[in-house]
Specification:
With 365 residues, the chain is of the alpha/beta class. Helices cover 43% and strands 19% of the residues. It contains 15 helices and 13 strands. The protein is flat and about 60 Å long. The two termini are 22 Å apart.
Length: 365
């Protein structure tokens, strides 16, 4: 189950610097956080999770495999992108294929780095990108509704549902609001997702601040935080300059550098985790002598579907899930201790997996 986050932003906001630091850091941490370049602008990184190391230590696991998230560096977004300005059409298509958007905003003052509009105003920058995505969605909706006319005359149920949802999105967009604000019923959720509208994707604002502002942020990032809260979106504060420096260091040196800066962890770790939370994802674990592994599921996933993330046969032949809560696994010093303490549970098909569960699936072949 792969999850993609597209990194967008206007020129000269630090987007590429962040992406490059992200990929270099992931490469340097290859033992615990596998990295691979699928395409020149795509990086796959491990989601930081200290729980995995603790589980592996108790079980004596030979290999540690974290769950992963894919970041896509989407360049070329400028005012007019929806009309093909810059490399607009190509990169709008790239955004369509992602699950969420990390929008890098310039929140630093630097006379040597020219802003495309000659000023530093992250809220306005965010509005420029959002407007382009909204215009692209409107154009797409108008074309798709026109193509549904014949099927609608034939009373095609699927076409009727699609047109109804497109109309709701169009009304929201024409009111100057993103399509993600449309309230969608549970029976329409799958069809709504299939529309792949750009403005239905959740947004994480990444405030790129100066090195001295990396802990508390500044007036610019405070405005972004206010905007994000009003929209129901998230934000993180990162200094691309610091992240670039950290990416060049060995693990111990990087930790010392962070401590000197007054930071508990690298900003990129916060970015990855925030993206994970933004998509309402959770982690469960499988643990044994061979490997300790993290698996990604959406919040609210039932045990059979969680098993299916490992292999489709696990879901089809699901019998039960032997389940130990993470805290119990640690407190009882492993699976055997948890069994003896009565902390291992046999859960059936209706069980909703909880974040941190250590699971062993039993299934029919």
């Amino acid at each position: 189950m792969g999850f993609k986050m597209g990194i967008v932003g206007l020129p000269n906001v630090g987007k590429s610097t962040l992406f490059n630091a992200l990929t270099k850091t992931a490469s340097a941490q290859a033992a615990n956080f596998p990295f691979c370049t699928i395409e020149p602008n795509v990086g796959e990184v491990g989601v930081p999770d200290a729980r995995l190391d603790k589980l592996a230590a108790i079980a004596g696991s030979k290999q540690i495999i974290p769950t992963r998230m894919t970041f896509v560096d989407i360049a070329g977004l400028v005012k007019g992108a929806s009309k093909g300005e810059g490399l607009g059409n190509q990169f709008l298509a790239n955004i369509r294929e992602t699950d969420a958007i990390a929008h890098v905003l310039r929140c630093f003052e630097d006379g040597d780095v020219t802003h495309v509009d000659g000023r530093v105003d992250p809220v306005t920058d965010a509005e420029v990108i959002e407007t382009e995505l909204m215009l692209a969605d409107l154009e797409s909706i108008e074309k798709r509704r026109a193509n549904l006319v014949r099927k609608l005359k034939g009373n095609d149920k699927e076409a009727q549902q699609q047109d109804r949802l497109l109309a709701a999105a169009q009304a929201m967009l024409e009111d100057g609001k993103p399509a993600r604000l449309v309230e969608v019923d549970a029976e329409d959720a799958k069809a709504w997702k299939m529309l792949q509208l750009l403005t239905t994707k959740p947004v994480l604002y990444v405030c790129n601040v100066g090195e001295s502002e990396s802990v508390e942020g500044n007036a610019h990032s405070a405005k972004v935080a206010e905007m994000a809260a009003a929209q129901g979106n998230s934000h993180v504060i990162i200094s691309a300059q610091i992240e670039e420096e950290i990416s060049q260091l060995e693990a111990e040196e990087a930790q010392m550098f962070l401590e000197e800066m007054g930071l508990e962890e690298a900003g990129l770790d916060r970015l990855i985790r925030a993206g994970y939370e933004l998509l309402h994802l959770e982690t469960y674990f499988t643990v044994g002598p061979k490997e300790a592994r993290a698996w990604t599921i959406r919040t609210g996933t039932a045990a059979p579907q969680a098993a299916g993330v490992i292999h489709g046969d696990f879901e089809k032949g699901f019998i039960r899930a032997e389940t130990i809560a993470y805290d119990d696994f640690i407190a009882c010093n492993g699976e055997q201790g948890a069994k003896e303490a009565g902390k291992m549970r046999a859960e059936g098909k209706s069980y909703v997996v909880k974040d941190g569960d250590v699971l062993h699936f039993l299934f029919n072949t």
